[in-house]
């Protein structure tokens, strides 16, 4: 009986060891098969907006180990104008490129056949055009307070917060990094502006950080700004410059 | 500062008068093949009234070599009409897209393109000799004007305007490079002019610059 007990204990022990080994393998094997991302590029193409949402393409490239191996993805996104929450996201395409010493392969996959132009057309969503009326590059800046309107007055440069950093962060989650970099560089302007778009009710500010040279991250962000928020900032600034 | 408020004021005043017809055009580069590039063209036609305009969206296939439009697909055409002139807008979709762009690009194995650093665009400028690159007060021509003209058909207009305004030191403020993409041994420049008011044209064009020519230009510039 004691032998039986010992045998049973031994079996349990062995089972435990196997279970533990299996658990470790379960954790380890996916970790091995997971690709190591060296850098990510993210391009955003603003398409349209309505009263509550804005619509865009988000195009991502994740470099695996080195610059010639990557995974691409193209998604269509619908986001809240208020807080940048993704209300709808459709992954349209993924591509994986693998290069070795003697071969290279490209595995392109259609994930969803959604025709974005047809969708926008069916919902009567209208495309947005670049516009430099009113606002120009030198009049905007990001700092630890958020997005600011900057003006030269007789009493020096004055600025007024248009959107606090907490609100900017909702749309551009990497903004703190940009602000930190700006402070390090001793700049307070917006050298990263790549697009300004205006419609009847909104400005859309498109910014970029990083680039596509070498193994570095490239990020783009879209910040919707209501004409009402801008108007308030202008009034605040005008009263101080008066 | 005053000019800023005057600018904003002028937008509101402008709405009170009848505008001239104008066209706004936005180009979005989406992919590059061996001999052609692929882009969206968003076009807005202001018809000379504040109460009617037409938007069009095209998918373009363009020759890298000479800027020739090899194929153009109309994706959308939208007629916007303020029926009472009191903000009662009717938006009528006139066509149905005949192509699924995303699917087309996969079938052609065209990968999406990504822009270079925002500061890179500052290197480029235009003058009477064509596209130039600058380094302080030094400059070097890299694409002759007759080649630029093939890709940027409105370049002469903006150069003339710069000269008329006495801007003869070759700096042309009317045309600027707004973004750059490195792809397939080329640098694709998105070039823009105008667009300051509703009755002024806003134009964008895509100018492919062979990487070899850019590098050669940079070497010449360094030797100066």
Explained architecture:
The complex is a heterodimer of chains A (242) and B (224). By secondary structure, chain A is an alpha+beta fold. Chain A contains five helices and eleven strands. In chain A, the strands form three sheets. Chain A has a five-stranded antiparallel β-sheet with strand order 1-2-3-4-5, with no helix packed on it. A three-stranded antiparallel β-sheet of chain A has the order 6-7-8. The N and C termini of chain A lie far apart (99 Å). Chain B is α+β, with helices and mostly antiparallel strands. Chain B is built from five helices and eleven strands. Chain B has helices at 2-14, 101-107, 145-151, 155-164, 211-223, and strands at residues 22-32, 36-46, 52-63, 69-82, 89-93, 124-127, 130-135, 138-144, 176-183, 186-194, 202-210. In chain B, the strands form three sheets. Chain B has a five-stranded antiparallel β-sheet, with no helix packed on it. In chain B, β1 and β2 (36-46) form a beta hairpin. The longest helix of chain B has 13 residues, at 2-14. The chains are: A alpha+beta (242), B alpha+beta (224).
**Spatial order of strands in the largest sheet of chain B:** 1-2-3-4-5
- H/E element sequence of chain A: HEEEEEHEEEHHEEEH
Q: Provide the β-strand percentage band of chain B.
A: 35-45%
Secondary structure category of chain A:
alpha+beta
Question: What helical percentage do the residues of chain B reach?
Answer: 10-25%
């Amino acid at each position: 009986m004691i032998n039986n007990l010992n045998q049973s204990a031994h079996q349990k022990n062995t089972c435990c060891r196997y279970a533990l080994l299996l658990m470790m393998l379960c954790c380890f094997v996916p970790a091995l098969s997971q690709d190591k991302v060296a850098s990510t590029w993210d391009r955003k193409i603003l398409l349209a907006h309505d009263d509550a949402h804005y619509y865009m393409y988000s195009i991502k490239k994740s470099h695996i180990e080195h610059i010639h191996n990557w995974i691409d993805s193209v998604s269509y996104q619908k986001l809240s104008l208020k807080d940048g929450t993704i209300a709808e996201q459709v992954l349209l395409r993924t591509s994986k490129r693998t290069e070795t010493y003697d071969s290279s392969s490209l595995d392109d996959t259609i994930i969803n056949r959604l025709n974005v132009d047809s969708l926008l057309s069916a919902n009567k969503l209208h495309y947005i055009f670049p516009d430099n009326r009113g606002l120009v590059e030198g009049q905007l800046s990001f700092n630890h307070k958020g997005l600011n309107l900057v003006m030269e007055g007789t009493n020096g440069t004055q600025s007024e917060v248009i959107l606090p950093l907490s609100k900017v962060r909702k749309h551009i989650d990497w903004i703190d990094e940009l602000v930190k970099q700006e402070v390090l560089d001793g700049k307070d302007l917006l050298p990263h502006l790549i697009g300004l778009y205006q419609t009847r009710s909104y400005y859309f500010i498109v910014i970029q950080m990083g680039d596509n040279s070498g193994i570095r991250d490239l990020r783009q962000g879209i910040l919707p700004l209501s004409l009402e928020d801008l108007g308030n900032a202008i009034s605040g600034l005008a009263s101080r410059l008066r | 500062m005053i000019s800023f408020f005057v600018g904003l004021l002028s937008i509101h005043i402008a709405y009170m008068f009848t505008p001239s017809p104008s066209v706004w055009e936005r180009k979005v580069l989406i992919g590059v093949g061996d001999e052609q590039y692929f882009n969206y063209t968003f076009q807005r036609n202001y018809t000379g009234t504040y109460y009617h305009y037409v938007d069009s969206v095209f998918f373009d296939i363009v020759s890298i070599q000479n800027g020739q439009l090899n194929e153009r697909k109309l994706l959308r055409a939208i007629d916007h009409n303020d029926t009472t002139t009191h903000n009662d807008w009717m938006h009528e979709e006139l066509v149905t897209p005949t192509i699924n762009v995303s699917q087309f690009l996969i079938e052609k194995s065209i990968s999406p393109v990504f822009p270079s650093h925002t500061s890179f665009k500052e290197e480029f400028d235009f003058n009477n000799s064509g596209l130039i690159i600058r380094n302080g007060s030094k400059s070097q021509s890299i694409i002759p004007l007759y080649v630029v003209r093939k890709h940027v058909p409105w370049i002469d207009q903006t150069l003339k305007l710069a000269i008329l305004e006495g801007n003869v030191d070759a700096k042309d403020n009317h045309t600027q490079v707004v973004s750059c993409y490195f792809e397939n041994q080329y640098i694709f420049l998105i070039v823009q002019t105008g667009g300051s008011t509703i009755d002024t044209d806003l134009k964008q064009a895509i100018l492919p610059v062979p990487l070899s020519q850019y590098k050669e230009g940079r070497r010449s510039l360094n030797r100066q």
